[in-house]
Amino acid sequence: MGSPPDISVIVVSRDRPSDLRKMLASLRFQDISGFEVIVVTNTPAALENAQYPEPLRLFDCNEANISVARNVGLDAAKGRYIAFCDDDALPDPSWLRRLLAPFSDPEIGAAGGFTRGRNGISLQWGAVETDRLGVAHPLDIAPRAEPTIFAPSQDRAPVMIGTNCAFRASALRQIGGFDPAFAYFLDDSDISLRLSLAGWKLAIVPRAQVHHGFAAGPYRQQNRVPKTLAPHGKSQAYFGRKHAPEQALGRALSAFRALQFSRLEKQMLAGLMEPACLKTLMLSLDKGHEAGLKMQISLEPNQPRPDVESSPVFTMTKHRHVMLVGRKSDRKWQKALAATLSKAGVMVTALTLSRSAAYMQVGFAEKGYWVQSGGQMGKSGRHEPLIRAVNLREKVDSEVKRLSGIRPVNYVVYPQQSDAPDIFSPHDTAMSCINGLVVDSF
After folding, report:
1. Which of 67, 80, 368, 401 is the most buried (most CB within 10 A)?
2. What strand order describes the sheet that includes 423-424?
3. pLDDT tens digits, one per residue of 354-380
4. Does domain 7-217 have CATH number 3.90.550.10?
């Protein structure tokens, strides 16, 4: 038998089998190997006929409690370093390698990355820190910055956002893992503050990025309108009682209630919910507050600081990345070839461009490849001009350049009937062309 994996990647999933399959398929293309995958889910059948990295171990968890599910994964993990990623997230190929880099410092207990939003391009979450009341405060850290290290503090801690974070397993176990009182919301703020209070440094790694789709779940709809605010209210009240002075709690809960009302009001005015829903949701928030004020506070274990450990051990892995470029009429060709290449272990992006100024959108197919679509003259980034008159080749060139820091492209392929050169490759490689397709020994 071989040595146990040094790194465990834990994916918690509930009622989202399609998203889980996409996430696991994308995880195959990490640029390192030597990690195990642990899936904790209430839909184990989702892995039938799915594509995923190996080794993978599956654990059933029927309780709708993200902290309980994460602790199931933690108990099973063999790695000295543990990373978490959500089922509705898609990690960049360099995600795990970059996220683990700070652990070369033995004083680092956890690291967290940045998260891009639904279009796969714009930033959704950057860096925030929590105070003892559970209030998040933005940190001024740029998306392309080098890792920032935070010394232990008794008052604040940078938050290791649950969809994109990693921990030293011994540090996580030292403080007793995740608190099951946080079924949803503030679970990541609690674990970050507790690690800081235990004397661990925490790192923010902006370039360790995932694309987060915000899928529907037990507590929110697809349009991000909450189904209930009871878990939010419960967690907010419990967090404040656990970490903050009693005299500060009342004002904090009132401020949180006002913040939630403002958020819901904006969603109502945008036509995302009926006025009656706002009242119902606020009542659920109040009930959650009441429940959180009555909960018994869990006592953290008083365990000694673990011994200093060496850096994570992994092997670099290189995946060829092929971009298939076409129009809407070429989608059948793109889908068929993308699925075939992906099954063979080749990273694929199917880029479909219309003759318009539509914004670029990025997603992932269950068949295991990236999907991009947008206008030939449209913008891909927030700071680009709304319309830019370019030909197809120029647009593709700009996309190859944009992706160079995310998932570098090795080959670009056009169908023979397209209005573009037969082949364009960013790298000099011996290739031949048959019926407009690049043929190489993948």
Report:
1. 368
2. 361-364, 370-375, 347-354, 321-326, 411-413, 423-424
3. 999 999 999 999 999 999 999 999 988
4. yes
